[in-house]
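re: ur question from yesterday

yeah so i grabbed the chain u mentioned. its 444 aa long if i counted rite. heres the sequnce exactly as i have it in my notes:
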Amino acid sequence: MRLCIKHITQFVSKDRVYARKDEALKHVKALYEKTGAGSDFLGWVQLPASTPENQIADIEELAAFYKENVEIVVVVGIGGSYLGAKAALEALSDNFWAMKKSESPKVIFAGQNISEDYMCELLDLLETRKYGVVVISKSGTTTEPAVAFRLLKAHLENKVGKTKAKDLIVAITDEKRGALRTLAQLEGYRTFVIPDDVGGRFSVLTPVGLLPIAIAGFNIRQMLQGAADMQKETAPDVPFENNIAAIYAAARNELYNAGKTVEILAGYHPKLLYITEWWKQLYGESEGKEEKGIFPAGVTLTADLHSMGQYIQEGLRNIFETVISVERTAHKMRIPNVPDNLDTLNFLSEKRIDEVNKMAELGTMLAHVDGGVPNIRIEIPAINEYNLGKLFYFFEIACGISGYMLGVNPFDQPGVEAYKKNMFALLDKPGFEEESKKIKARLN
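ran it thru and got these structure tokens back, copy pasting raw so excuse formatting
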């Protein structure tokens, strides 16, 4: 995995980026020694290299159980409780996995929205399928997944009986407290623990992400190995010039100081779409506070060159672009020669499709730089479990460094409570009587 920042140097010099090396490495050390803001939520930092073997084996055993007993596993969660797993599955799966048979269960998601149509259509699908449920929540009281789990629990118990349903439901939750932990103990569900010191958006390499990924048939040992190797490559004893996470954090903060307040994560592979969605939550929730922060956006190219491309090329010049480039594809296909050449594309004959894609990537990068958009490039050798593990950890550790450089606590999220308070007041939740009167008066 490589990082290239040479296409930002006409906007901020390499010297300016490297001038922040002591600051960046100080923050790497703070993450490891837990001396910075949010230190209670740094359990993920050294987790990849220390995941217990018995936990991995338990996850693999449960994945094998589901493989033998169900066609579908519904994973219930929102935010970090679902985006990491969703990102990994979309990246690793066949593009048309939903239409093809598979030895492993299909993993689908619920609890990431409050859509009545979504839940009705999901339950309609499950009516004729063998399925299990993995419910993920530290508290068990987050509205979206709690509502979804109520419906799925009732449906599954009605379908197969309470005793059998118990064996098909797994809870990933707090070790000792919370509504879901209490319910799991009462019902006898098998459980996995979300560590107290790991926040949701940093939890993809815990059972939160690993269990759904294993159920779908992918190699979590390889993913953890990739993350562990990236942990070594970005550790406090690694010099700044070799620490790609520290360089990335320093570069994006220098661009921010130069007025580039929006970062667009771009990928030239459609399987990276949900990597972008996961990354948006990671950086948006970590850095967007105290009226600071780089706004994280995303595009899938080349498709979005025919929609967002105009804005990126000539819109407001407050943006920079980070491109995830995939060196090798899983398949090879060449473009055929056509005698009539009506589309005038015979100059591409016998070229691989990926060569055309790579030239589109290179040409777009140069055009965007010429148009005033700095460009950072992250190159991974291929899309597989090992490289995804490296990519997940790279973005996580860089996020911690970058947030500290920005001067915020990257590990809290006080702003996400505002909408919940308003929603509960509008729904007349007990205890919100005064808030209900005030907010309803505002709407009149």
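noticed a couple things. The chain has two domains: 2-36+225-406, 48-218. also The first strand starts at residue 2 and ends at 7.
anyway ttyl
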